[in-house]
């Protein structure tokens, strides 16, 4: 009988602990979800053109550079890890943000398609861990485009991180810290990291 009571007490404590954890998470966690669209041949705002005015207003809805810096802002929030799974990564503003994270002590891991190894050579020479799609998969592209920040946030969408992607193409990017969405991307990144 005592064993049954101990088991019931342990179950009650575990349930109470789980409930408190959920309550604390919901209280302290502020969900962030943002959608960014790139529309092809977008204008650049006066601020990013370098025009000085009495009041420079950022035009996040129209200026492609404002949108790029919104994504970079999320990258700059990284404190411990930055896992990048990207088919094409050539745009210097994004590459520099990745390098800055690495220099801040963030553990950066990069998965790329083998066709694009030359564009990420600089990152590999800096000591950033990199995996490349192996030749046995040569008929298929590693076409993912997602970035996991501190295992808490994910940036995903159709956007390759290229100047053509942000300036010429119609693309979408979704930024979120919803743990239900982040979790599957963590699993997929680790699966690919182990496979490649």
Order of helices and strands: HEHHEHEHEEEHEH
Mean pLDDT: 85
Q: Count the beta strands.
A: 7
Shape: globular
How many individual helices? 7
Q: Strand count, sense and closure of the main sheet?
A: 7 strands, mixed
Structural class: alpha/beta
Fraction of residues in helix: 40-55%
CATH topology of the largest domain: Endonuclease, Chain A
At CATH level 2, the architecture of the largest domain is: 2-Layer Sandwich
Q: Which CATH top level class of the largest domain fits?
A: Alpha Beta
Taking all Cα atoms into account, the compactness measure Rg is: 21 Å
Strands of the largest sheet, in order across it?
1-7-6-5-2-3-4
Summed up:
By secondary structure, the protein is of the alpha/beta class. The protein has two domains: 1-30; 32-195, Endonuclease, Chain A, CATH 3.30.870. The chain is 42% helix and 20% strand.
